[in-house]
Amino acid sequence: MAYSRHLLGIEGLNPVSVTSLLDLAASYVLLNRSGKTQRDALRGRTLVNLFFEDSTRTRTSFELAGKRLGADVINMSVATSSVTKGETLLDTAATLNAMNCDLLVVRHNRSGAPALLAQKVDAAVINAGDGTHEHPTQALLDALTIRRHKGRISGLIVAICGDVAHSRVARSNILLLTMMGNFVRLVGPPTLIPAGIEGLGVTVFHDMAAGLSGADIVMALRLQKERMSAGLVPSAREFFNFYGLDRAKLSHAAPDALVMHPGPMNRGVEIDSDIADDPVRSVIREQVEMGVAVRMAVLESLAKGNNR
Ligand code: ASP
């Protein structure tokens, strides 16, 4: 497979490597549903989850993925507040090298931290979300979810809505979905859409009715208050009125449009519970299931390429 030693972002993948990762992940969906495991794939390998930022689904998803493939999994949580970034990262890298870890899953609130670690450790590094930069396994699991429902991952109109500016999920999805030949629209207030983002091949809308018109996929993003300086959004209530995904706004999308959200959701802010829990339109829970399968595929592909 055309695949580098690390997975630092969707940047660095190509349509062939994305497709083969999705194909491998699809086989793991079937395996997981059958209740079987494949504990030989990563037997004897050590996977370290190094999370400098809180996470529920991503960390547990990588943990489960590693265990289902037979790896020894170690979770290291580091409180962001106690971290002096540069020093700690380099110290951590030295420690991990001494432990002979094979796969290192990193989440950090600074963009570029996983790339820095990748230069210093012997392990294959997987970016599990860095600042506002990338979250590649989220985009891959979103792509797998879309492909399962639409039968393809090209030629679709995908509306990504809300807080694009602070979202690494949006960035990885933009890169993956445009690379695979989809029509990506970003819908949100001017304060939450980075200037010049059209350069990535997307179309920007500030009105939900126009942005969602005929969309095959509607992806709501979490309003990331923890990354926001004051004043970008007047109030959660006003944001919901204009940009919260509810049934009235969704009616502008294609009749069979899928609703997605990377989680965690702010119900009543970027998405209405009525839509989030709609068993026909919402695939939000399935995204979580696809996450485990995609992470199994990524771990196995990198471990195979990691011939130390
Ligand atoms: N869980 C995703 C992330 O870590 C999305 C979010 O936090 O809103 O980027």
Detailed description of the structure:
There is one protein chain. The chain has 308 residues and is of the alpha/beta class. Helices cover 40% and strands 15% of the residues. It contains 11 helices and 9 strands. The protein has helices spanning 15-34, 57-68, 85-98, 113-120, 136-150, 168-179, 208-212, 236-243, 247-250, 273-276, 284-305, and strands spanning 46-51, 72-77, 103-108, 124-130, 157-161, 183-187, 203-205, 217-220, 258-260. The strands form 2 sheets. It has a 5-stranded parallel beta sheet. Helix 1 packs across helix 11 and helix 5 (136-150) packs across helix 6 (168-179). The longest helix has 22 residues, at 284-305. It is globular. The two termini are 18 Å apart. The model has no long low-confidence stretch (mean pLDDT 92). Aspartic acid (ASP) is lined by residues 129, 135, 168-169, 222, 224, 262-263.
Summarize the structure.
40% of the residues lie in helices and 15% in strands. With 308 residues, it is of the alpha/beta class. The two termini are 18 Å apart.
Question: Mind sketching the topology for me?
Answer:
Blueprint: H1 15-34, E1 46-51, H2 57-68, E2 72-77, H3 85-98, E3 103-108, H4 113-120, E4 124-130, H5 136-150, E5 157-161, H6 168-179, E6 183-187, E7 203-205, H7 208-212, E8 217-220, H8 236-243, H9 247-250, E9 258-260, H10 273-276, H11 284-305
Parallel strand pairs: 1-2, 1-3, 3-4, 5-6, 5-8, 6-7, 8-9
Helix pairs in contact: 1-5, 1-11, 2-11, 3-4, 5-6, 5-11
The protein binds aspartic acid.
Aspartic acid binds next to helix 6.
